Fold:
Amino acid sequence: MSFEEFKPLNEKSLVEYIKATPALSSKIGADKYDDLVIKEVGDGNLNFVFIVVGSSGSLVIKQALPYIRCIGESWPMTKERAYFEATTLRKHGALSPDHVPEVYHFDRTMALIGMRYLEPPHTILRKGLVAGIEYPNLADHMADYMAKTLFFTSLLYHDTTEHRRAVTEFCGNVELCRLTEQVVFSDPYRVSTFNRWTSPYLDDDAKAVREDSALKLEIAELKSMFCERAQALIHGDLHTGSVMVTQDSTQVIDPEFSFYGPMGFDIGAYLGNLILAFFAQDGHTTHGNDRKVSTIFRILICMFIALWDQHKDGPGEAYLADIYNNDEVLKLVQENYMRNLLHDSLGFGAAKMIRRIVGVAHVEDFESIEEDKRRADCERSALEFGKMLLKERRKFKCIGEVVSAIQQQS
Amino acid sequence: MSFEEFKPLNEKSLVEYIKATPALSSKIGADKYDDLVIKEVGDGNLNFVFIVVGSSGSLVIKQALPYIRCIGESWPMTKERAYFEATTLRKHGALSPDHVPEVYHFDRTMALIGMRYLEPPHTILRKGLVAGIEYPNLADHMADYMAKTLFFTSLLYHDTTEHRRAVTEFCGNVELCRLTEQVVFSDPYRVSTFNRWTSPYLDDDAKAVREDSALKLEIAELKSMFCERAQALIHGDLHTGSVMVTQDSTQVIDPEFSFYGPMGFDIGAYLGNLILAFFAQDGHTTHGNDRKVSTIFRILICMFIALWDQHKDGPGEAYLADIYNNDEVLKLVQENYMRNLLHDSLGFGAAKMIRRIVGVAHVEDFESIEEDKRRADCERSALEFGKMLLKERRKFKCIGEVVSAIQQQS
Structure:
């Protein structure tokens, strides 16, 4: 069997592919193919995902198809996204190796990634949050991932030659960016056949979003920032469904939307989804998802500043050591940078909240609430908070004030 | 003679080159080579520029050398800049054809552009301003050039696919961007062997710039915006020495620093240099360079908004017609966009003023003041105004307030 041109794999051809690929077969072990267990688990919207478990090893094969899987061939989507996913998994994996699964193999023609299988009890973080499970190391781990991947791919560490080279490469992932532009920054604010919400309860709320000029002003600024500002190599889809966890392990997956964009888009995606989890609990604070927001952000800021201090004489060209040459000026610019990052994160986080309530893709946190009326009430609270946050984000001086606002809103 | 690999031309080989190149020889006319008058006039810092005038036609040949001409081979600089210059001359020329000289020929190997000779009485705008000459159409022409080149290469007109493609191409001009980063955003704020100023009069002033934490905070934000924000295809060096004028004609030349950057960098360069011209007149307002600042900016804003209104249903994806779907919301976002653009322009303009007084490259406006003490006094006023503008730019609600501030400072 030849794999010299693209073809979607099935459970049978997958085994042939693994046999023909030493980087993969070595993980399974020779002559161990008879008892292989293969399971297709792509519950995402875009790809095939096969779990391959043998007696002496395991792996995951992820293959991108040239369209969005859940919609079908009517919504084409370049399979080149697999190239950007693999490239970012490797880059982010080199920067935060404990929190990104190892890539064993990438085949651009086949749009195929062979990577570590995140064995049980790894579960999707969102499912864990819905179930009310606590992950004691989660904030530390996510802060490590975000601080390192964002810092080291920004001009705080890159010289501008390296930065523009890297930006150039990821400009190629424009189709995936365009999908984000549409579903996050555009569709929720206009009539679109893709939008849905808990009807009829939220009909007026959805309409109010489409008629809110102040909200449209803010979303336009964020959309332009998303499209124009190459601040760091961001994951691009860092919600709680892109993180797999156990009590000890936190693994960030699925960076196919990655590109050089604003850092706040990643931080905001994560914070916004934590806030959604809070509102999905009907205002009860038993699981502490409100406090999770401040904990992760505070640790992230500390780690980020520590990296900055540590590498202030490094290759980064945004703040040159012979200009920012004393503690006073360094502290001044760091505080300013972090305040701007907070505001960007709150804005993008709010945008991500809003789109999950009145846009195309919803979240299990709310979907798992069976009764429509009760779900709508939770969603309305989250939506109102998201709208307030998007409009008022610049008034928040620290993450603590955001948590207070969450508690007041609920 | 072969021109298949790069070689610097001289007045003799230049004629051979023209003869061998129909796009150029057709401008001169056949058999007219005996009475050709060739003059090398590259008074810039980077290139050779030959004016070629025959009895039936004329042209200019501009050739980039692989180093900065005025410093020599010790400061290498890619000759690929000629590619970006030619590409932008053609792109901007298509958008504002009355204000960009026609390109007849481009040879990437030879880093050579053949283009329209801007015949006498065309003169460098800066020289005209120093001489106190009035150009009645200048503001209209420059507003036309800036409004059209910036609007049509931004996401107000581009879809994001076209935008990222174009951004990718111009990421290649990173070496020229790095030169700007150094001389505009870095060197004036640190000890650098390239810096110079009117010494000893401005010794303390230069030191004060290097010790001003608030100033360093602002210049860092602008540097990051310059490096990260791909808002439009900007000229990249739009000072009054990059414009040639007569009473009727205004021609923008030398876009070798062009790339996708913040619009405010172009507008600010032009405004900042007009403000420098004002301060070089020792505070006398006879030439009205203060009022020139408000006139050009107001016309620019009007033209820009008119283009936006005209193309609001066009391909641009920043403000989609079905979201910004009534006059109220459209006016709201336009005013916000223009206020941000004013603030960006004032910041970059201030940075350009400062660097012309304490950085490597100075301006004839001041240099033509022979007496050191008097020159230093003018420069100090301009420097103080630049510093104030950089720190306080967000407080200005309109360009009129800026002109009032100029008049108060002088």
